[in-house]
Amino acid sequence: MNNLRALILAGGVGKRLVPLTLCKSLIPFCGKTIIRYVFDDLKAAGINDIKVICPPANIDQIKKSFLAKDNVSFYVQKKALGMADAVLSVPDLDKKPLIIVNADDLLEGEAFKQFVEQIKKTESQIILTGKYYKEYFPGGYFVLAGKKIKGLVEKPPKDKQPSNFIRLVLDYFKDPKEFINYLKKVSSEKDDIYEVALDKMIKEENQADLFEYRGYWQSIKYPWHILAMMKIILEKRMVKNISQSAQISPKSTIKGKVVIESGVKILEGVCILGPAYIGKNSTIGTNALVRESMIGDNCVVGFATEIARSWIGNNCWFHTNYIGDSVLQENVSFGSGAVTANLRLDEKEIFIHKEGEKINSGRMKLGAIISKNVRIGVNTSLMPGVIIGNNSVVGPGLVLSRNLEKSSACFAKQNLEIKQNNVVITCR
Amino acid sequence: MNNLRALILAGGVGKRLVPLTLCKSLIPFCGKTIIRYVFDDLKAAGINDIKVICPPANIDQIKKSFLAKDNVSFYVQKKALGMADAVLSVPDLDKKPLIIVNADDLLEGEAFKQFVEQIKKTESQIILTGKYYKEYFPGGYFVLAGKKIKGLVEKPPKDKQPSNFIRLVLDYFKDPKEFINYLKKVSSEKDDIYEVALDKMIKEENQADLFEYRGYWQSIKYPWHILAMMKIILEKRMVKNISQSAQISPKSTIKGKVVIESGVKILEGVCILGPAYIGKNSTIGTNALVRESMIGDNCVVGFATEIARSWIGNNCWFHTNYIGDSVLQENVSFGSGAVTANLRLDEKEIFIHKEGEKINSGRMKLGAIISKNVRIGVNTSLMPGVIIGNNSVVGPGLVLSRNLEKSSACFAKQNLEIKQNNVVITCR
Amino acid sequence: MNNLRALILAGGVGKRLVPLTLCKSLIPFCGKTIIRYVFDDLKAAGINDIKVICPPANIDQIKKSFLAKDNVSFYVQKKALGMADAVLSVPDLDKKPLIIVNADDLLEGEAFKQFVEQIKKTESQIILTGKYYKEYFPGGYFVLAGKKIKGLVEKPPKDKQPSNFIRLVLDYFKDPKEFINYLKKVSSEKDDIYEVALDKMIKEENQADLFEYRGYWQSIKYPWHILAMMKIILEKRMVKNISQSAQISPKSTIKGKVVIESGVKILEGVCILGPAYIGKNSTIGTNALVRESMIGDNCVVGFATEIARSWIGNNCWFHTNYIGDSVLQENVSFGSGAVTANLRLDEKEIFIHKEGEKINSGRMKLGAIISKNVRIGVNTSLMPGVIIGNNSVVGPGLVLSRNLEKSSACFAKQNLEIKQNNVVITCR
User: Fold this and answer.
1) Are C395 and C380 in contact (CB under 8 A)?
2) Tens of pLDDT along C150-209?
3) A420, C411: Cβ pair inside 8 Å?
4) Which residues 6+ apart lie within 8 Å of A13 measured at CB?
5) Are strands C416-420 and B408-412 parallel, antiparallel or unpaired?
6) What are the residues facing B374 on neighbouring strands?
7) Between residues B205 and C333, the one the model is more confident about
8) Contact yes or no for C325/C365 (Cβ under 8 A)
9) What are the residues of chain C with a beta carbon less than 8 Å away from any beta carbon of chain B?
10) Is the N end or the C end of chain B the one with fewer CB atoms within 10 Å?
């Protein structure tokens, strides 16, 4: 269809996702990783020559998102030296017009098609993508002259934005050789050689055009971005489908846009309020409620449990719980009556405490962020924004309002008083 | 229809309702205040000339219970100097036969009609109302000679009752002038000039007749009387009605006498067991149960919550709670798993602690009494008869067995022990 | 049909059932005591001459399992001196061929029929019953030569078993007189005269035959054996039946093999997942779940409660609880939100602590063992394998991980901090 090539940058290590041990581009949503959404969108835009550059640690996992017939080439970036180094780690990029995208940025399905159309129509040498923001957003802004890009400004102070367009990583170089040369010759003390090279080239060559983008854009930096990504995919990307092999009680209710995968069991009195996704072989138990959530494979959402606006990984077990606005990576179980509080009593925004920092999630509602292999005791309460590292155990009947490192065992010491009972208890 | 006039005494300040900041006669039941029940009953008995005397602080609120076409005259009692002063604060009462009633006493709908019939039939100068009690009741008793009233005895000792008739405030004076003169001339050190005047007049004039009343009677003194009043109104006064604009899931169950107001949503798996009232725009969430209760406007009774025999004001939010035999004034929310205990473990009568006093509610089942603007944390337990003042916050996972003053913040200090978890947690 | 006589040994005092105050053979399953199952099985095998030997303390209770037309003879064993003494306490046993069985051992219904057939076919003098075990079981093993029994070995070490057959108490003596003589003449320092006499007789007379038994066998020693017995009876013995007088909501679900007795109410949204038994006049409340359990008479399984794999005696009350793998003797109530934890957080086998001993239940899932007349407070958590003696009260909001003696009152002391609340709480 065209002679375009795309390079997907899959180098994100996701330090800020701690305690989650997930690679950002490989987080599954509705059974599909983000990198796969990006790949499918590129293919749908007619791009067939696709390369992926990734860290050595993730390459095997990343390959699992692809089939042989996808005909993807994989390259390894030996060290985590940033985007510029990633591009330079891929050989022979200078032969064909090149599109560079991030593996964990989700744009509208139509975005790549429109980008390719602009490439075809305009004969531009360079096209960079700006997402329109009416309000301030702390990102890299374009300096514009009409539709011509004149430069880049990283995180300008509020009210000093040079335009309303934030740079996204969706770049086009008709002649990548030129850009590669810039990448090789600039230097920077920060992890921004790519942007510095881009800015220098724009200014010296004076021929970069803007692709105006006004749709949704979601990347993943902090764990709660998984919830934001989930919301977009549930609402915009997921296509309603109920597997023929699912067993669904006629006494259950399924409303709105819902995907139910093969082998799922939906028992009596259950409500699934869409948009919602139920992964393979999971069971939604008697009188449970799942709404605006994704449930992974092999989960058991037991009796009278509510899962609301949460991302639940594989092999999680619940039993009369409330899980709201939470991320549970994998193999997490909650004892009966354990709940996540997802709203502060003072109804203020919820902060996350990480490595001495206090980070505003910007959310009024946020539950717990739990890594894999975690057990929560009966009647225990997890406070808003609590983080629990993998392989941890939280005892019964306690209130957890601080984070737990991985491999923690947390129990409450009680002061029980046991006396003689002098009341004779009889039958009512 | 007749030339009768009625004076409604709306002076009750409701000190004993603390922590509730409700004016007794303005507490709504099924969307209608008590004073409005009294007014409607008077109208139904053919009385069209109705005056209301009320404190300055409440007059604006009280007026909201009436429409222009109700043609009510309002008067202000400047200071809270009791019933006698209230009557004397209304000008020109001496022109017409006068009925005096309390704004917060509920009698059977037929009571006023029968009272008016007796007035018409008997040509009596004075008719006072006695409620028949077989057992002792701590109130003011009539001394009787046949159907003639010979005097009043305030709270006689048990087994010294002069009759089986307790005085209620439903009084008729053919010539109010005479009674007004008595009110002006007697004096008392206690807040009982009205009763002293009445007793004196009865004895000196010797022409008061008894209106024998054997129906229900409910007034509001302590907060749990709101539950008693609710029970009577649900059972005796409320007329079944389901608004056309309510959205009711066909998978819900509505049994018995139920009122569902406009804009209400009843979701799947809900049971409403009558008698019950659901106020405007409230939502009863998936698998919730409401029975023998009143729910105010704009409430959300969330997933798997049970509300039993409780009076719930406007804007209350619940989420997997048990609320039993409780009074929640307004804008109260309960976190997931929070419950009201409504039965002592020793199954004895429940006492309320107020201002150093210990008051027997006479009830085996009583939950919490909560004022407005209160937040209760997840998995918290409120013990029977606990009182919580307005603008208070109760933390998560604690047991509250004492009262909280208004603007309290109550949290439990836990003793958490965090160790290395040496158990390797694997998938089941 | 035949001239056989059976003697049922009902001497078990059930010390190891503490805190339960139940007599082992009188524990009801599906409305029928174990001794009655044994009796009915004997009758079905054509045995009409049946005697029962029991302790003085239990005889009145034991007689209640029988009707006059059952034509049973009862004998009292004055002191708890073991099986040999029990047999010797019954007069005139030497007249007829005799079968001796335990009152609290449950075998397959067909087992006694097959045993009687072997008696008829073989003309054996003595037939003893061996249950086939492929793996080691800590019991009394037979020494065999083909189908001839050559002796008994009590609890041989593992891998030293003389055969694969464990002795059960289902013995036949064509001439009981001979065995009675042995019982009279042997002596032992342990409580095993019966076994010693049997071993001696086998060796000296050399004519005992084996009845090979390969079906299920369950006796009751520790409280969790009640759960094992329940499982067998639910699966193998109970016959599906729903009383005509039960009131069952069309919005409830009853699946699998279920018995619902007279006067039972099953409310809306309930799930009963068989095998399950619901005793007379019990109510299963809105949105509750009962599965693989037995519920006694006059119980109330209230709103949103789950009872799973549990044996629940009469007059128990629940309200939004999870009761899993538990035994509750009688008149036990759980406050709202109270739960039994039935799985250790480390998912290891559950131990019971009794009289300084730590006994492995061999179960991964085990909840609480609760005697009669016990009250559990709201939101309280009972840890796996906890034992609670009768007439005890457990306070609200605590975690009980130790046993409670009878007549205990256990409460948690909390450290509440009450401050001024400076946040103004407004309506959402």
Assistant:
1) yes
2) 999 988 998 899 999 999 999 999 999 999 999 999 888 888 899 999 999 999 988 899
3) no
4) A23, A55, A80
5) antiparallel
6) B332, B392
7) C333
8) yes
9) 249, 251, 267-269, 286-287, 303-304, 319-320, 335-337, 346-347, 375, 377-379, 393, 395-397, 412, 414-428
10) N
CB B108 within 8 A of CB B84: no
- Residue A137 tokens read as 């957003």
Cross-strand pairs, A5: A49, A98
Write phi, then psi, for A391 (nearest 5 degrees).
60, 40
Closest CA of chain B from C390, distance in Å: 14
* Tokens coding A123: 């004969």
Work out whether strand B311-312 and strand B327-334 pair parallel, antiparallel, or are unpaired: parallel
Residue among B177, B149, B179 at smallest CA distance from B163: B149
Q: Pick from B105, B152, B146: which is nearest to B9 by CA? A: B105
Name residues of chain A where pLDDT drops below 70: 1-2, 12-14, 428
Question: Which residues make beta-bridge pairs with C173?
Answer: C98, C126
Backbone angles phi, psi at C259, to 5 degrees: -110, 125
With a cut of 70, which residues of chain B have pLDDT below it?
Answer: 1-2, 12-14, 428
Q: How far apart are CA C317 and CA C319, in angstroms?
A: 7
Tokens (6 digits) for B357: 């006093």
- Tell if the CB–CB gap between C416 and B393 is shorter than 8 Å: no
Record the tokens describing residue B102, joined without a space: 């309390």
Token pair in block for residue A82: 């940033």
Strand, coil or helix: what is A426? Answer: coil
Which two tokens mark B202? 């009865």
Looking at residue B328, its amino acid is L
> Whats the size of chain A, residue-wise?
428
| CB proximity list for A65: less than 8 A, separation 6 or greater | A26, A33, A35, A36, A39
Interface predicted TM-score of the whole assembly (ipTM), two decimals: 0.92
Q: Residue C364 has what pLDDT?
A: 94
Check whether C351 has a pLDDT greater than 90.
Answer: yes
Residues of chain A with C-beta less than 8 angstroms from the C-beta of C274: none
Chain B interface residues facing chain C, Cβ-Cβ under 8 Å? 251, 253, 269, 271, 287, 289, 304, 306, 315, 317, 322, 324, 331, 337, 339, 341, 343, 345-346, 373-375, 379-381, 383, 391-393, 397-400, 404, 407-415, 423, 428
Which tokens in the block code for residue C231? Answer: 């499982």
User: Could you say which DSSP state residue C157 is in?
Assistant: P
Average pLDDT, chain C: 94
Residue whose tokens read 């509440």: C416
Chain segment C257-268, per-residue pLDDT in tens: 999 999 999 999
- Report d(CA C294, CA B395) in Å as an integer: 38
Residue that is written with structure tokens 């999971």 in the block: A282
- Nearest one of B170, B179, B210 to B197, comparing CA atoms: B179
Give the predicted TM-score (pTM) of the model: 0.94
Residues B373, B391 contacting (CB under 8 angstroms): yes
Which stretches of B96-174 are DSSP H helices? 111-122
**How does residue C98 score in pLDDT terms, banded at 50, 70 and 90?**
very high
Token pair listed for B228: 């008693």
Number of neighbours of residue B418 by Cβ within 10 angstroms = 15
Distance CA C218, CA C105 (A): 6
Q: Measured between CA atoms, how close is A19 to chain B, in angstroms?
A: 16
Residues whose CB falls within 8 Å of the CB of residue B64, separated by 6 or more in sequence, listed in order: none
The per-residue pLDDT for B428 is: 64
Closest CA to A379 of A330, A424, A321, A325: A321
Nearest CB to A339 within list B375, B379, B395:
B379
From CA A62, how far away is CA A10, in angstroms rounded? Answer: 8
Contact of C180 with C126, CB cutoff 8 Å: no
Contact A174, A153 (CB under 8 A): no
Q: Quick one: pLDDT at residue A147?
A: 87
Pairing of strands C148-154, C140-145: antiparallel
